[in-house]
Amino acid sequence: MRISGSTALVTGANRGLGARLVAELLRRDASTVYVAARDPESVAEDVRRDPRVRVLALDVTDPDSVTAAARACTGVDLLINNAGVLGFGDVLTGDLAVFERDLATNYLGALRVTRAWLPSLRAAGPRGAAVVNVLTLIALAPVAPMAGYCASKAAAHSMTQALRAAVRGDGIEVIGAYPGGIDTEMLAGVDADKADPAEVAARILTGVETGREIIWPDDASAGAGALYLGDPVQLETMLAA
Ligand SMILES: NC(=O)c1ccc[n+]([C@@H]2O[C@H](COP(=O)([O-])OP(=O)(O)OC[C@H]3O[C@@H](n4cnc5c(N)ncnc54)[C@H](OP(=O)(O)O)[C@@H]3O)[C@@H](O)[C@H]2O)c1
C-alpha cells in the first residue's frame, strides 16, 4: 500500500523503533500519524509540533484504554502494532508472571488493538488498508534466555497468520515484520549484533509499499529468514546454540 496520503497509527510510538516508524511515515508523506503511547507526555516535543501528528493515550493491555483510543481517532488505514515488552527467563526456570506480562502485551495487546481498529481498516475503501505486526526473528525459533518473550511473539506470529486468513477479501493486507536485534532500550545491556532502528523502520515501510506479507527488515534477519524458509529446524538448532 502507498504510505503517502495514508492515515497511520503506531503503538508504543514514544521511543525506540516506534518513534523511528513515526519519523519514517512522516518522511514518506503520510497525511496523519496517530502517535500512541502509554504516557502521551513522553512523546518528543518536535514530533508533537508536526501538524500531521495526533498524540493518543494507549495502553494495549487495558481494554478501556483501547476502546477510548479507538473512539478518539478516525480513518486509520495503516495500523502498526509495535508496542512490546521483553522479559528474560528460560523455559525451565523463568518467572511465569513475566511470561504472562509478555503474552498480555505482545500477543493479546496486539490482538485487542487490531480488533478495535478493524472497522476503520475495513472502511478504507479502494486505497486498501494494512496491519503490520512487529514480530521478531525469534518468534520463529526461540533463544534460551528469552523463552517467554519468544513464545509471546510466536503467538503473535500465529495471530498474524490467522488474521490474514480472516480478513482476506476485506481489502486489508496483514504483514509480519521479523527483525533481528535492534539497537533500542529493549536490548540495552545485551551483547548482540544490533541494527539501526531508523534503518529497520525504513525497511519495514519499504516492505509495506512493495506489498510484502513477510518483511525481514535488517541484514541479520534476512539471512536467518532465508535459512528458516529453507529449513526451519536448522534455524532452531542455530538459535538454540
Ligand atoms: N529491540 C530489538 O532487538 C527488537 C527485535 C525484534 C523485534 N522487536 C520488537 O520491536 C518492537 C519495538 O521494540 P523496541 O526495540 O522499540 O523496544 P523499546 O525501546 O523497549 O520500546 C517499547 C515500546 O513499547 C511500549 N509499550 C510497552 N508496553 C506497552 C503497553 N502495555 N501499551 C502500550 N505501549 C507499550 C513502550 O512504551 P513505554 O515507554 O510506556 O514503556 C515503548 O514505546 C517490539 O514489539 C519488540 O518486541 C525489538
From TrEMBL:
Repressor as a keyword of this entry, yes or no, is: no
Q: Which UniProt keywords apply?
A: Oxidoreductase
Please tell me one Gene Ontology term that the record gives under cellular component: membrane
Source organism superkingdom: Bacteria
Which is a Pfam family this sequence falls into? adh_short
Q: Which GO terms describe its molecular function?
A: oxidoreductase activity
Q: Cross-referenced InterPro entries, in alphabetical order?
A: NAD(P)-bd_dom_sf (IPR036291), SDR_fam (IPR002347)
**Cited Gene3D superfamilies:** NAD(P)-binding Rossmann-like Domain
The entry's family comment says:
Belongs to the short-chain dehydrogenases/reductases (SDR) family.
| Protein name (record) | SDR family NAD(P)-dependent oxidoreductase
